[in-house]
């Protein structure tokens, strides 16, 4: 084993232990939570090692980095999740490799994703990204949170739009614990709020049962609240150099 492989295996084992412990504490089965490793800023070689170690889901947040990485890893049995703010001019590229876009936050993006999915004959899974720091805003008014996302009040309408768009599959909801607003520093409460929104969503769309929440620092809170997917970068790959 190379040093990097040894390091990634050890980190992955630690994260796996954390997820298992959080599931046990919450009385949940380990299989109820899927680990998505966020490989942004790290090279395709790392993705390949992770795949060899059994990782099946990876996530990226910038198309410029993700597209060549996904191409270099196209022989691997991986699902690619796109988790960054997505400009419509990047949709064509992203639909080329992403199985799930977790950052769906506005009608124009839904329209662009649908058009491209239909054009290429692909089905794209979509999560509506909820901005819990935008909770106080009315829909259509300051809807976008600082890190992307639609306000809680706007989730239903956007979800209906996704569900009615050819080529798109409404899979559920995603959030990032907010740094500002009423949920700042209250990850557990934020993730419970997301679960409530998911319960509402599933009344109309029972299959849209993905709840993507929790990162390296707060995955335990997400698992406790009921998340089905956690997105872990740093704890597996190491601290990212610079912004990312
Ligand atoms: C980077 C990122 C993560 C992973 O964050 P870590 O703190 O490195 O685990 C999760 N979700 C999104 C949307 C991200 O951009």
UniProtKB/TrEMBL annotation:
Domain Alanine racemase N-terminal as annotated: residue spans: 11-241
Gene3D superfamilies: Alanine racemase
Record keyword Secreted present: no
PROSITE patterns: UPF0001 (PS01211)
A Pfam family hit: Ala_racemase_N
InterPro entries hit by this protein: Ala_racemase_N, PLP-binding_barrel, PyrdxlP_homeostasis
Keyword Lipoprotein assigned: no
Essential cofactor(s): pyridoxal 5'-phosphate
Example of a GO MF term: pyridoxal phosphate binding
N6-(pyridoxal phosphate)lysine modification, residue list: 40
Keyword tags: Pyridoxal phosphate
Function: Pyridoxal 5'-phosphate (PLP)-binding protein, which is involved in PLP homeostasis.
Family in the record: Belongs to the pyridoxal phosphate-binding protein YggS/PROSC family.
Protein name, entry field: Pyridoxal phosphate homeostasis protein
Lineage of producing organism: Bacteria, Bacillati, Actinomycetota, Actinomycetes, Kitasatosporales
């Amino acid at each position: 084993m190379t040093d990097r492989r040894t390091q990634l295996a050890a980190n992955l084992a630690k994260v796996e232990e954390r997820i298992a412990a959080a599931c046990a504490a919450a009385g949940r089965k380990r299989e109820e939570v899927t680990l998505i490793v966020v490989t942004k800023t790290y090279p395709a070689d790392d993705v390949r090692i992770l795949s060899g170690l059994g990782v099946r889901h990876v996530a990226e947040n910038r198309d410029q980095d993700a597209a060549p990485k996904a191409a270099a890893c196209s022989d691997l049995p991986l699902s690619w999740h796109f988790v960054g703010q997505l400009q419509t001019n990047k949709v064509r590229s992203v639909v080329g490799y992403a199985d799930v876009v977790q950052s769906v936050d506005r009608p124009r993006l839904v329209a662009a994703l649908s058009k491209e999915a239909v054009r290429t004959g692909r089905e794209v899974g979509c999560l509506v990204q909820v901005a819990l720091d935008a909770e106080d805003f009315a829909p259509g008014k300051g809807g976008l949170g600082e890190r992307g996302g639609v306000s809680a009040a706007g989730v239903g309408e956007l979800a209906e739009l996704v569900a009615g768009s050819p080529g798109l599959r409404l899979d559920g909801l995603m959030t990032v614990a907010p740094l500002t607003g009423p949920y700042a520093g209250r990850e557990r409460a934020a993730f419970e709020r997301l679960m409530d929104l998911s319960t509402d969503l599933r009344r109309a769309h029972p299959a849209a049962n993905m709840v993507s929440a929790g990162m390296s620092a707060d995955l335990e809170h997400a698992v406790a609240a009921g998340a089905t997917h956690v997105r872990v970068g740093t704890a597996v790959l190491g601290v990212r150099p610079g912004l990312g």
